[in-house]
Amino acid sequence: MLYEQYLDAVGGLLAKFRETQGKNIAAAGRLVADSIAAGGAWHRYDTGHIKDEPIKRAGGLFAIYNMKLTAEVEHQLAPNRAHDEKTVESAYLRQEFMADFLLDNSHIRKGDVLMISSNSGRGGFAVSLALGAKKRGLKALAITSLEFSKSVASEHSSGKKLYEVADVTVDNCTPPGDAVVKAKGLDTEICPTSSIMAASALWCITAQVVEELLARGIKPSIYRSVNLPDGDAHNRKAKEEFQRKGI
Asked: pTM score, two decimals?
């Protein structure tokens, strides 16, 4: 059955991730913990697959800050013209200068860490975001697919891809093209893997950050599920503690 093919593929990718990415996860955890322990912040930008995954999630950190770039264009379509599926997001994700606009208008500071998730790692915006962060004194942490990235051409003016400019890269181990299941009668694979693998990478890094902080005697503020009886009370107290100490 096709669903079994998918589960087999995901299981294989997770096994590969566990076998190959231990050192990179450890390096990512140290990078973020060093920043947080020194009063820095952990920022995150995702290009589309798991945009809100770590925000206010049970077992997640208070000390991670999602970055979003939004804009709206209103323009009535003239009669007898085909509907054009242009979106502002798809436009700026291919524009290098928009990375500077985002960084210049964000609450970043030298010594912070910016984690960038991009499966192919080829887009001009993602590469510029990493370069711009480093230029401003931040560390750039990447979650990307090395195999996918190495199989495609960069869209950045430098010819570089995300993994080539980041300080630390965690490979999510997804294959080129992302989808993994071959269905008879279709000429392209179905069922992508990047969301599962990127989320797994994110939570592995989070676990390592927590381990690093606890080893330094620093207790981070953690969300608890609001569906547990004491969830709301715990989160109120944790939020107060987080606002007091910033960790």
From this structure: 0.93
